[in-house]
Design a protein that fits this description.
With 273 residues, this protein is of the alpha/beta class. The protein is built from 10 helices and 8 strands.
């Protein structure tokens, strides 16, 4: 798919056509490129970079600098494509505060081990459920897992809310020129790790509640492809099937599916959830 409904691309600000001044190099669109960490970086002439990458000896400083720059751009692109919003981009395992709370330490340990063992979980298609009270840090740890998977494993990932999946599919029914329902489900199935947030928090519409069926389809598609899914919900585990369907709930538990319980009360007072 050339156009993504869920995965954003880095924004380009102050864009204008410029010439680098090297004879034979065409003008290019130069601007400030959004960086995952919150800064902006000015892009450089693509022809100059190509020259440094492919026509410069590999031991030359110009070649090595170009390689580092390209790798940084790819990583930045993949991190922004996760859909992690600026509020959660600084989330990591190290800045998740547990103090002496054993329950918080356990949740952190489960999530950290899942990230560190992700290649095995990817091969097995093993799911992880983060379930508990609002404001306990579930999204924080899910974003930490996503970042680890992208940075350390070189994998692709995406975080979406249950409501955003429903809205995207609803929009597809109204817009024949946009992506179809099949396109949207294919995009959700394509990434190595999908995180579905806010399950059970959507507003059900009597007779028109598509969300459980859509979540079932998204989870089942990934199950068939042996790809892991992380599900975040403030519902109790025994109530999960009411929001994703009984078969999808079983899919998440199969093959050693993991559960990280967040059993303490919300501590949200300007912090992360």
């Amino acid at each position: 798919m050339t156009i993504s409904k869920f995965s954003p691309a880095p924004e380009l600000a102050e864009s204008r056509m410029v010439a680098c001044g090297v004879p034979g190099h065409l003008q290019f669109q130069q601007g400030l490129v959004e960086q995952f960490g919150g800064t902006w970086k000015r892009n450089t002439c693509p022809a100059c970079r190509w020259q440094a990458l492919y026509n410069t000896p590999k031991d030359r400083e110009e070649h090595l600098a170009a390689v580092v720059e390209v790798e940084a751009e790819y990583l930045n692109r993949d991190l922004i494509a996760t859909g992690i919003t600026p509020r959660f981009r600084q989330c990591s395992f190290d800045n998740y505060v547990t103090s002496d709370d054993k329950a918080k330490q356990r949740a952190l340990s489960i999530c950290r081990k899942y990230a560190e063992g992700f290649d095995a979980h990817l091969q097995a298609g093993r799911a992880l459920m983060l379930m508990g009270e609002i404001g306990t840090g579930k999204t924080h740890l899910a974003c930490a897992i996503l970042q680890h998977v992208v940075r350390q494993n070189g994998r692709t990932g995406l975080i979406v809310t249950a409501e955003s999946i429903t809205q995207a599919v609803t929009d597809s029914f109204r817009n024949n020129a946009g992506p179809s329902k099949s396109d949207l489900l294919a995009e959700l199935a394509a990434v190595d790790l999908l995180v579905i947030d806010e399950v059970g928090m959507h507003t059900a519409k009597p007779g028109k509640d598509f969300t459980p069926g859509l979540l079932h389809e998204a989870i089942d598609r990934r199950y068939q492809l042996i790809k892991p899914t992380i599900l975040i919900s403030n519902q109790k585990p025994e109530s999960l099937q009411d929001f994703i369907g009984p078969r999808a709930a079983d899919r998440l538990r199969e093959n050693g599916g993991l559960l990280a319980p967040f059993t303490w009360k919300s501590a949200r007072s300007g912090g992360l959830a």
